[in-house]
Amino acid sequence: MSFERISKTLVGDTPGRSTELNYFRIGPDAAANKVYLQAALHADEQPGILILHHLLQLLRAADAAGELEAQFVLFPMVNPLGMGDIEFGQHQGRYNRSTGVNHNRGWPVLYDAIGAELVARLGADAAENIGLVRAALRDWAEQLPRVTALEQWRQCVMREACDADYVFDVHCDDDALVHIFTIPQLQDNMQQLAGWIGAAATLLAEDSGGGSFDEVWPAIWLQLARECPDKPLPLPVVSCTLEFRGQFDTFDALNRQDAENLYDYFQAQGLISGKAIGKKGAPPAPTDLRATEVLRAPQAGLLAYCVELGDEVHKGDRVADLIRLDGDDAFVERIPLLAGTSGRVISRATTKYVWRNANIAKIVGSEILESRGAYLLSD
User: Fold this and answer.
1) H helices within the chain, ranges in order?
2) DSSP helix, strand, coil percent of the chain (3-state; round to 5)
3) Residue-by-residue pLDDT tens, the chain, 379 positions
4) How many C-beta atoms lie closer than 10 Å to residue 52's C-beta?
């Protein structure tokens, strides 16, 4: 049995700005597998905090019963810097104030950092290659700069995640159904996860264009395998972003159920023994993220939705009307916003006053949309 609470002080860049980063390590130190989970990287997305709060209790009970077969590292509130971002009585938390960068964008390209040295060192044994790469990742993480508060924070988080077998980044959308972002190479495993957590969609992209946290960890393994096709190098990390509904879906009973569903998935993976809690469902087939339309407002206005979450729409169907707020037809004209693809509505905007190019809905279809381009993430 092993349970440890770890607290790191992030020294502020100005007086009075230091803060604490707290996380937990649970399970046997000598376990063959490591599971890393974090929530509230986008600090304005809080359902994950409550989900990991409940998962922490389940894992502690399993640890006390000797049922943990893996070591679990949990950051229930991974971004205290963003949690402190309150302005005019409103919590922000999605962007770093000092850089203007989205907290879930621009994470390092690990192959660029250490790939060249590893290419020359890989051998003929797959297990040894995995150990070699992970040791290099740990050394790299230990040597990262730790001058600014942002650097201190990123270094601590990456040091804990770099050698994990599972990396789960828990988010939420605006107003949405549960869905998963992951890479195509992991779709079979992620369909198992989708069945346990009741996901409405599993969206696949090897590189969604923004350097998001979950894509960093498998990317180096995939690139090394491409550079060294004659060397055995399996993909040893299961990584994803989990979108647990919308920002207002922070409810004790609901998020406890989410935690139990995750617990069941980890049991099914052989990472926790004991009696299963729930039952796996049958999720829809995974789809290419390029087939998901991000419907945007052509101008400012007030939204009046014509669809509910989960509705199936056809290309050309009206998703919402945009009530004009200026000009000769202000407060009279309703501008129809039409689906550009056929599929299922999995997210909508909670803020009904929108501005030009604001994201108002995501529609998961099956047809690749060339208009999506290389940057597949929403704002």
Assistant:
1) 47-64, 80-83, 110, 116-119, 126-142, 149-161, 187-197, 213-227, 252-268
2) 30, 25, 45
3) 799 999 999 999 999 999 999 999 999 989 999 999 999 999 999 999 999 999 999 999 999 999 999 999 999 999 999 999 998 988 999 999 888 899 999 999 999 999 999 999 999 999 999 999 999 999 999 999 999 999 999 999 999 999 999 999 999 999 999 999 999 999 999 999 999 999 999 999 999 999 999 999 999 999 999 999 999 999 999 999 999 999 999 999 999 999 999 999 999 999 999 987 788 899 999 999 999 999 999 999 999 999 999 999 999 999 999 999 999 999 999 999 999 999 999 999 999 999 999 999 999 999 999 989 899 888 7
4) 28
**Number of Cβ atoms within 10 Å of the Cβ of 339:** 21
Q: Which two three-digit tokens encode residue 215?
A: 């894509």
Determine how many CB atoms are found less than 10 A away from the CB of residue 17.
Answer: 12
CA proximity to 81, closest of 6, 9, 138: 9
Q: Is it true that domain 3-285 has CATH number 3.40.630.10?
A: yes
Question: In 10 A of CB 268, how many CB atoms?
Answer: 15
Looking at the structure, give the CATH architecture of the domain made up of residues 289-372. Answer: Beta Barrel (2.40)
**CB distance 291 to 364 below 8 Å:** yes
Residue ranges per domain, the chain? Answer: 3-285, 289-372
Task: Report residue 1 as tokens.
Answer: 């049995």
Q: Matching CATH topology for 3-285 and 289-372?
A: no
Chain-centroid distance, C-alpha 285: 19
Q: Where do the H-state alpha helices sit in 42-176? A: 47-64, 80-83, 110, 116-119, 126-142, 149-161
Q: How far apart are CA 2 and CA 64, in angstroms?
A: 8
Planar angle of CA 185, 294, 47, nearest 5 degrees: 75
Residue 92 structure tokens: 């922000």
> Residues near 29 by Cβ (< 8 Å), separated by ≥ 6?
2, 71
Sign of CA dihedral 66, 71, 72, 78: positive
Angle at 247 between CA 17 and CA 263, to 5 degrees: 95
Under 8 Å between Cβ of 35 and 75: no
